[in-house]
Amino acid sequence: MHPGDPRPLFDRHASRILARWRDHLRALPPSSALAAPELLAPLMAPALAKVRQEAAREDNHLLSPEPDPCRCGLNPLITFYLTGECATIDVMWEQPDALAPLAPAMREDLCRRLRSAWRRVATAEVSLFCSLCKRGADMEAADKHDASHALQTAGYTAQEAKALVANAPEPVACAVARSKS
Predict the structure, then answer these.
(1) Mind giving me the DSSP string for the chain?
(2) Rounded to an integer, what distance in angstroms lies between the CA atom of residue 145 and that of residue 165?
(3) In Å, how far are 67, 157, 170 from 160, measured between CA atoms?
(4) Tens digits of pLDDT across the chain (181 residues)
(5) Largest separation between any pair of C-alpha atoms in the chain
(6) How far is CA 18 from CA 12, 29, 86, 92, 137, in A?
């Protein structure tokens, strides 16, 4: 293990991170019934273990983007992972043996690794949950119907509109409809 390896910090401060994470989750109103802190609490330790492993990867130096927003806004894992990331950074800053004694460049690198690890794990989990969401599929079907209607209003025949919507991503179909009108 090299000095930038975050695993020893996770090992020493896991209980503090989990406690702070629970506090952060309880402080926010749940986005859905599945987002109740009592339901999410059993997922915390396994999620923290995944993040710990992800943070130790050598190629984990680039900041990953935040997970794509949930189409219906009800995915409980978005808040779950964002509050976990915040709890980790909060705890690491508070502990005298974590971030404070590091040189500024190492501290920045470690924070970047921690954030990137949280976002990589979150992106995978949030995407999986959203792929199973019935509400998101219903919204996608409604979007395709709206795009088809917009194309027909813009002068395309029903068959042309149907083919465009079926063969192109929704934003492309909508852009075509806007450019035709």
Answers:
(1) --TT--HHHHHHHHHHHHHHHHHHHHHSPPSSGGG-HHHHHHHHHHHHHHHHHHHH-TTTTSPPPPPPPPSSS--HHHHHHHHHHHHHHHHHHHSTTTTTTS-HHHHHHHHHHHHHHHHHHHHHHHHHHHHH-HHHHHHHHHHHHHHHHHHHHTT--HHHHHHHHHHS-HHHHHHHHHHH-
(2) 8
(3) 34, 5, 15
(4) 455 678 888 999 999 999 999 999 999 988 888 889 999 999 999 999 999 999 888 675 555 565 566 767 788 998 999 999 999 999 988 888 888 788 888 888 888 889 989 999 998 898 888 888 766 555 565 556 566 667 667 777 777 766 766 666 544 444 444 454 4
(5) 68
(6) 12, 19, 11, 12, 33
Angle between helices 170-180 and 158-167 (to 10 degrees): 140
**Tokens at 75, concatenated:** 């995915």
